[in-house]
Amino acid sequence: MPLSGIDIFKKLPKTNCQECGVPTCMAFAMKLAAGQADLAACPYIADDVRAQLEEASAPPIRCVTIGTGDNALKVGGETVMFRHEKTFVNPPGLGVLVSDAMPAEETDEKLQRLLSLSWERVGMHLKADIAALKAASGSAVSFAALVERARKTGVTNMVLMSADPAVMAEGLKAASGLRPLIYAATADNLQAMADLAREHSCPLAVRGSGLDEVAKLTAQLKDIKINDIVIDTGTRDLHQAFEDQMNIRRAALKANVRALGFPTIVFPCEMTDEPMQETLFAATFIPKYAGIIIMGDLHGANLFPLAVQRMNIYTDPQRPMATTEGIYEINNPDENSPVLITSNFSLTYFVVSGEIETSRMPAWLLIKDTEGLSVLTAWAAGKFVADSIAAFIKKSGIMDKIKHRTLVIPGLTATISGDLEEELPGWTIQIGPREAAHLTPFLKNWKA
Q1: Cα(379)–Cα(383) distance, rounded to whole angstroms?
Q2: What is the distance between the alpha carbons of residues 288 and 167, in angstroms, rounded to a whole number?
Q3: b/e per residue, 339-351, with b = 16+ CB within 10 A?
């Protein structure tokens, strides 16, 4: 069971040196218990105590890192069954399967889409994360060439797939320094794959026939000090795979089954040949509870909805999603276009900007930081009021972009118009519609 803050404090040196960045050892212990601090931050813990605390304070689902540097993919590290209990931690990696039996042109197209498809949404970068490179030919030379090809293309996060340790060894040489995930250790090749994982300091996936065999394999790996493990239960049936994901999470969190306390990898691409169905299968595993999801191919039509779903699930439910404060140009506005202002609550931004885009009327949309609160809530909390809006208008730079001095405010905050005109001398404050759906006729009839 995880240690409490008091239990951890009893094992700390109690120097209150503040070198960890926290004022006292007690505060540091509480942060450790809450998963908000790293044990490595304390320079004075004895090695034996450090080992005890690392084991006791580890999350029920181990965090495994694939790749290196800022672009590395972290999976696992989860502590709750349901998002509303606290939050989910590390979003699942979305990836594409490429084999050395594919034509070079198809390989390059898949890898280019993996790297190029990306979107900015609410200040977040939505993209795929990893390439699964499969030795379908059985040739070590072909497999190494595929890995090298992917590396030259710019892929840094990889799953190397082969059941043959000799073939895997050549692939790992080609991926030297990238720390790929080795897939997969089975009952037939466990020791050889473990040796490769230790030699190259790479995480290792295990594949078994069901939970019992997987648990047996992970226990054997832990006995030989291989701890960075990813689980594949081997099933390619959606219903059974879904049950396996649920049972793994429940066993690790509720029953403290350490042999199942690892992130998982699933292959919707091997569950169906129908692209739409594959996307639906992937969407099933994002909330329940895959660590890595491998698709047969990636296009905007399947990656974007999956990436948005992942973003929505893996955001802190206790913190509202917010859009970055600033000036947003919609439909190529000019110096005579209307200026509207609203809060930075993401839903508000998307609804308002969407209605403006639909109207096809050029406009400047000012987004004011209200800590993610909606317009009415922000007004009630004193975060969308005349003095703060006026200060934002003055520093935003909008006055350098327009000739007129007319500002459109949301209809729900009509009461602040008088105060706002006092705070912005020379400006005319217009009251916009109460509902975003009425913005189109409003903008078509707008006059400064």
Answers
A1: 6
A2: 33
A3: bbbbbbbbebbeb
Q: Give percent of the chain above pLDDT 90.
A: 79
- Assess contact for 59 and 76: CB atoms under 8 A: yes
Please state the pTM of the whole predicted model: 0.77
Residue 57's pLDDT is what? 66
Residue 134, φ and ψ in degrees, nearest 5: -110, 135
Kindly state whether residue 319 falls inside one of the protein's structural domains.
Answer: no
Do 301 and 360 fall within a single domain? no
Instruction: Domain of residue 192: give its range.
Output: 64-313
**How sure is the predictor about 119, in pLDDT bands with cuts at 50, 70 and 90?**
very high
Residue 50: CATH number of its domain: 1.10.15.40
Distances (CA, A) of 181 to 73, 160, 184, 257: 10, 6, 9, 23
Q: Identify the pLDDT of residue 123.
A: 67
Among residues 134, 126, 89, the alpha carbon closest in space to that of 107 is found at 134
Report the CATH number at residue 375. Answer: 3.40.50.11600
> Tokens in use for 272?
């169906």
Q: Radius of gyration over alpha carbons of the chain, in Å?
A: 27
Interacting residues of 431 by C-beta distance below 8 A, sequence separation 6+: 408, 409, 411, 414, 417
Helices (H), 125-237: 140-153, 165-174, 190-200, 211-223
313-356: pLDDT as tens digits: 998 776 667 888 999 999 999 999 999 999 999 889 989 999 99
Question: Over the stretch 168-201, which tens digit does the pLDDT of each residue have?
Answer: 999 999 999 999 999 999 999 999 999 999 999 9
- The residue count for the chain: 448
